[in-house]
Amino acid sequence: MPNFVDEIHRRRTFAIISHPDAGKTTLTEKLLLYGGAIHVAGAVKSNKIKKTATSDWMEIEKQRGISVATSVMGFDYWRASGGDNSTIYHINILDTPGHQDFAEDTFRTLTAVDSVIIVIDSAKGVETQTRRLMEVCRMRKTPVMVFMNKMDREGKDPFDLMDDVEKELGISVTPITWTDGQGLKFTKSYFLNSDEAQTLPSETQDLLSIYPEFDEQAYLDGNLAPVFYGSAYKTIGVQELLDFFVEHAPSPRAIEAMERRVDPLEEKFTGFCFKIHANMDPNHRSCIAFFKICSGRFERNVYYKHVRKDQQMRFSAPTCFMAQKKETVDEAFAGDIVGLPDTGNFKIGDTLTSGENLHFKGLPSFSPEMFKYIENADPMKQKQLDKGVHQLMDEGVAQLFVSQMNGRKIIGTVGQLQFEVIQYRLEHEYNAKCRWENMAMYKACWVESDDEEELRTFKTRKAQYMAFDKEGRDVFMADSAYILNMAQNDYPHIKFHFTSEF
Ligand code: G4P
How many CB atoms lie within 10 A of CB 193? Predict the structure, then answer.
């Protein structure tokens, strides 16, 4: 049995991020196959929300049951090629939704991982969405590896692709594997015992030699991305990626709380909620709150402190996720994700600890980009609507604002699809009907100031633009860039924040 320290050191918790269709699902599936976690290709596919079916909510609904089990895919893995094969690594892959309207979900998932693998379609290069995700990684100094997928097809020149990554993602690169689409031709000496290893033509080797050698510290600091070429579909370069990954990717890293830095090896348990999945089974109104364990060991039936509520809670049926199965567990360690059955006690960002008052930083709350008034379309179901809206907001589906002037509710999202999801879920999970009313809105800004007098004047003068967020904080709802600029010029002592986290 590994001891406490080894348990944590052997964990690798990461997310695969990509533009839709680049091959994230295919790659995830191949990684699970290597881990022996699944036995047939196609098993993960069913988890995928089809990007094309933007209005087919029945389909999403059907898939939600599956997607919760596969939100985290955990499996054990031994290195097969090169290096040390005595360690049994425990890998947790966190799933991220591909559709850009759910980007907030992905951003939040990134707070719970210690590294990421970015998948790029070699025919397309780096796409906008990937660039945005990379910005979050850069902010958090998350170590990044890049998998250039679909090398079995005609695509861009491999060197151009590397340039593209350097420029578009703003990170230095170093190639680790190389392929002509048929099999791997290695550039580095890490995988010497692979049967397929061949030598490259000398001119390619010359070109490759201009890139820096892999430097683990530079990678861990988020300054250097090792690049792998391959094909997830044809299973070329996948094992090499996985073997390199387990050897060099970080085990759970220290996490900053407002109060102090929390080291994963501290024995006392701490964790935060980064995701809530409500109503998986409409008959049972069950929610699962996903907690990332930041330090120590989490145990079943032990009392922990729910910091926001200042309450002791214990959990008799915490679940961990092994590939596609969800299992009750007795203990879990820093780096793991546990699912806690919830009846409305948790919100995203909540902390559980062995007793300490801690608040973890950095759960991003993104500035909503689309706003609509939400109206009740069935007067008999007001209560159901209110409950549904509040629960969905706690789940982080969108953000709720309430006008300070007339009490009307405004929902802010990052994409149109979220409005459709909310409407659908209100109807099917809460038996409530809503209507949307368009509104002119440019940006929601959280306002604060040390100058109380100026803030008071501002709020009085701008009363028609003021709203509360769900925590009761003041939000200035500017309906145009002009109004916002004016406000910023006229009230120099007020700070305007574009996300709720400041
Ligand atoms: P995503 O999760 O990032 O959205 O992408 P996904 O894995 O679903 O892959 C998107 C499409 O690209 C799929 O084809 C998949 O088979 C294909 N693909 C993935 N990796 C490779 C690769 O290495 N080479 C080639 N040639 N194709 C690849 P599809 O037609 O949408 O689905 P399917 O019919 O294959 O299921």
Answer: 10
First-residue to last-residue Cα distance in the chain: 43
Nearest CA to ligand 1 atom 9: 23
Residue nearest to atom 30 of ligand 1 (CA): 21
Nearest Cα to 361, choosing from 270, 257, 471? 257
- The pLDDT assigned to 57 comes to 43
Per-residue tokens: 65: 């049951």
Annotate 462-498 with DSSP letters as a single string. Answer: TGGGEEE-TTS-EEEEESSHHHHHHHHHH-TTEEEES
Q: What is the pTM of this model?
A: 0.81
Tell me which of 104 and 377 has the higher pLDDT: 377
pLDDT surpasses 80 at 192: no
Write down the number of H helices and E strands in the chain.
13, 27
Atom of ligand 1 nearest to the CA of 236: 23
Hey, how many other C-beta atoms are within 10 angstroms of the C-beta on 387? Answer: 16
| C-alpha 27 to ligand 1 mean position (Å) | 9
| 280-331 pLDDT, tens digit each | 655 566 788 999 999 999 999 999 999 999 999 999 999 887 655 678 889 9
Nearest ligand 1 atom to alpha carbon 29: 7
Atom of ligand 1 nearest to the CA of 45: 8
Average pLDDT over residues 468-491: 93
Region of 63 on the Ramachandran plot (φ > 0 left; ψ -120 to 50 alpha; else beta): alpha
pLDDT digits over 215-271, tens only? 999 999 999 999 999 999 999 889 889 999 999 999 999 999 989 999 999 999 999
Distance between CA 79 and CA 85 in Å, rounded? 5
From the CA of 149, give the closest atom in ligand 1: 23
**Rounded percentage of the chain residues whose pLDDT exceeds 70:** 83
Pocket test of ligand 1: the residue of 17, 26, 100, 238 to mutate, having most ligand atoms within 8 Å of its CB, is 26
Ligand 1 center from residue 494 Cα (angstroms): 49
Show the ligand 1 pocket: residues with CB < 6 angstroms: 18, 20-26, 48, 98, 149-150, 152-153, 231-234
What DSSP assignment string belongs to 444-462?
Answer: EEEEEES-HHHHHHHHHHT
